[in-house]
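Students often ask what a holo structure prediction actually looks like on paper. The answer is less mysterious than it sounds. You provide the chain, you provide the ligand, and the output is a string of discrete structure tokens encoding the 3D arrangement of the protein together with KG4.
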Amino acid sequence: MAEQNILILGIESSCDETSAAVTLNDKVLSNVIAGQKIHELYGGVVPELASRAHQKNIVPVVDQALKQAKVSKNDLNAVAFTSGPGLIGSLIVGVSFSKAFALALNVPVIEVNHMQAHVIAHFAKKNNAENFSAPQFPFLCLTVSGGHTQIVLVKDFFKMEIIGQTTDDAAGEAFDKIAKIIGLPYPGGPLIDKFAADGNPHAFKFPHPRTQNLDFSFSGLKTSVLYFLQREKQKNPDFIEQHKNDLCASVQFTIVSILTEKLQKASAQTGIKEIAIAGGVSANSGLRNALAEMKMKEDWNIFIPPFEYCTDNAAMIAVTGYFKFLKKDFASQDVSPSARFTGF
Ligand code: KG4
Ligand code: ZN
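The corresponding structure tokens follow.
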């Protein structure tokens, strides 16, 4: 079976990105992502507007993915789609499209867990990319996005166990909410990263949460930044403007230290030095630099997928679909999306 050429169309619509990708086995032929600018006006994703934008985008995005891959829809072997977790209205658009498309083409549908796909993104081979290397099992994957923060023990493609997770806000959410307090537009994570580059990470000290075991907590940090800025602004109304770079650098340093400390603890507990990161926050340069340091200090093997496979994308859905296709793990036409994450 492995020698066969399997063409999969992947569909991702769990949040505010409409994405379609075509893969040939584990190789990505196309990965088209349509973002939704509309949410910037509201300072966060508005679920109803996201669903409407998915409705509008899904057909042209799929069309473009097939064209870029130079694949005819009639040559597809299966359609893989995100069934959850995510925003229910957004998921329904992708799931309904995928089921109808697969039915019309008379090919199977493959249900994909979005969080599992973020991990399996490490096995997506970028077309024409040289020096591809994927982590060896077992490895630890820190999945950090706007909606999730997990340390996953990955024993095999489909044997994954969450050994640490956030008890409140996700890391990306913490970046975005603190950015909003600082007065930056949504999504603020990349902007904090940008301003942090010219700031002093030790200018301001923020407390670390006292979470047990390998779990995370970020809501206390958000509150402490809020109170700190309220106090400082009373003394100096221009405090934020005058200290923007230092503030961003200190916030970023705190979030990154919280993440890497737990990762270090997880590595020590499991004895695993094969470390991968996934999700939108893996784009953060502070996190990337900290991991590069750990590589030297802890002798870790670090894996960071190309940026377009880090944030929400359909390539990771299609590649996960491929590995499920090999196991003949198909869904039936009565499959429905589920908003909540209930495990792998
Ligand atoms: O994985 P993703 O695209 O979407 C989901 O949430 O599933 O992650 C988006 C999150 C946002 O919170 C965004 O602010 C954050 O990733 N992000 C970053 C950076 N780039 C994206 N956070 C910090 N630094 C960045 N460079
Ligand atoms: Zn995601």
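The two ends are 25 Å apart (CA to CA).
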